[in-house]
Amino acid sequence: MNSQFWDPEIETMPGKQLEKLQVERLKKTIELAMNSSFYAPKFKELGITPDCIKTVDDIHRLPFTTKQDLRDNYPFGLASVPLEKVVRVHSSSGTTGKPTVILHSQKDIDQWADTMARSMYCIGLRNTDVIQNTSGYGMFTGGLGIQYAAERLGAMSIPAGAGNSLRHLKFIEDFGTTALHCIPSYATRLAAVMKENGVDPRDTKIHTLIIGAEPHSEAQRKRIEELWGAKAYNNFGMSEMCGPGVAIECQEQNGMHIWEDNYIVEILNPDTLENVPDGELGELVLTTLNREAMPLFRYRTHDLTRFLPSDCPCGRTHKRLDRFQGRSDDMMIVKGVNIYPIQIEKVLMQYPELASDYLITLETIEDNDEMLIEVELANATDDFAALQNLSKSISRRLKDEILLTPNVKLVGKGVIPQSDGKAVRVKDLRHNH
Ligand code: COA
Ligand code: AMP
Ligand code: ZN
Asked: What CATH number is attached to the domain comprising 422?
């Protein structure tokens, strides 16, 4: 069946033709980026012009882009269009460090909504569906990204947002929600809250879950499908690329098709930055082909994955990525929020009452993922009121920085365990990780 959201010409385009399209779009994107004060001098130095690109392999001539580049050029240094063309800004957390900023033109927003709507159609959602979103609105792209796509698809959308599980439950029942967008750990948490309140998620109208934003195993997917009596599809999104809608599993559930009309996809050895042999694990590196306000070339995602071999029975030709196996840096994803230990360290360092050793423990308590931060005091004290105030203050400052509330425990000197003389900074005991 043909539809605005199922375009066989693009989705089943033979490889050679897809490459031709990528070359055309890459040339245009380079031309656009020659307006960026970040890329223009780099391209000049490397002698790069659109004419240098004859085949997709010529991508190797282009420089890499990193999150640090985004931070160093905060806030608008990577714009490739005049700022009056920018209609939306998304940004990562981080007030002590510089956050990363992503700029969108109206064309970028439209293209993002179209591609996420295509992803929804690909997993069987239609304009008759009722799609409820549990992601944070505001700066998290999982909020507005899913919202615009659900509306574009013509579905009924429920922008309930993060938290407030009882309200989610009420909406699911009262509005007859048929599809839920949530991170995998919240799918289990919400199911538990529903059961506690006498509702079996299997008895609702929900037939589809879109799950993503954090790594999860096949076993966790099966558990979620079992809990909800619904299909759960893995969806990959990344703010720097637009947000949700970069890659999604089709109904075969055998890896995520990455939309190659929008991205050139490389999987590289994170140390040598050379291509890994096809099918081997490496770091995903992406180049945008359809974004104008802030195109990115060879962006190092730090996500570890592999290409899956063989054609997909669904007929789509866009390559499939295996579920992510971890990261090539120390970023943690907790409750759908990306956090670097250094953000926490920087906040702790602002307190003269604290020594330098700390331990972050991630654990699942009553189906909710939690973060415990144990930190050593510089000097022993038995002033409990002062200690309580101190831990409250640290927790509040950390919430501003990392956007979730950690439990802070102040401990005496020498309590944090050391391993081989080196401090262990993060212990991940979460059920699904
Ligand atoms: N998505 C939606 N709700 C979540 C969640 C998630 N990833 N993780 C936890 N929650 C719920 C909790 O179950 C709790 O619900 P309740 O009101 O029924 O008790 C509520 O959010 C608050 O959680 P809590 O752990 O007490 O608060 P916190 O201050 O540590 O975390 C969140 C605050 C959850 C709001 C914040 O971490 C957040 O906005 N996460 C969502 C991030 C997101 O949308 N990412 C993009 C995905 S594409
Ligand atoms: P953000 O920019 O906040 O959307 O976060 C992007 C990061 O979330 C990615 O780089 C991944 O590490 C992670 N992520 C997003 N989708 C998935 C997924 N389906 N599986 C595993 N990790 C994911
Ligand atoms: Zn497929």
From this structure: 3.30.300.30
Q: Tell me how many degrees the CA angle 234-237-241 measures, rounded to the nearest 5.
A: 150
CA-proximal residue: ligand 2, atom 20 (nearest)? 215
- pLDDT of 111 > 80? The answer is yes
The Cα 382–Cα 371 span in angstroms is 25
pTM above threshold 0.85: yes
Q: What is the rounded CA–CA span in Å between residue 175 and residue 275?
A: 48
Write phi, then psi, for 296 (nearest 5 degrees): -125, 140
CA of 260 from ligand 1 middle (Å) equals: 32
Residue 89: its H or E element:
strand 86-91
Which residue is closest in CA terms to ligand 1's atom 1? 162
For residue 183, how far is its CA from the centre of ligand 1 (angstroms)? 10
Instruction: Say yes or no: 82 and 199 in one domain.
Output: yes
Average pLDDT, the chain: 95
Final residue before a domain boundary, out of 329, 359, 377 = 329
> Of the residues 300, 329, 358, which one is the last residue of a structural domain?
329
d(CA 167, CA 170): 5
Domain that holds residue 405: 332-428
Q: Which residues does a 6 A CB cutoff place in the pocket of ligand 1? A: 134-136, 140, 142, 162-165, 183, 186, 189, 193, 213, 237, 244, 335-337, 368, 403-405
Q: What is the DSSP letter of 335?
A: T
Q: Ligand 1 centroid to 337 CA: how many Å?
A: 9
Average pLDDT over residues 325-353: 94
Residues 267 and 391 in one domain: no
User: Hey, how many other C-beta atoms are within 10 angstroms of the C-beta on 7?
Assistant: 15
Is 65 inside a domain boundary?
yes
29-58 pLDDT, tens per residue? 999 999 999 999 999 999 999 999 999 999
Question: What pLDDT digit, counting tens, does each position of 222-269 carry?
Answer: 999 999 999 999 999 999 999 999 999 999 999 999 999 999 999 999
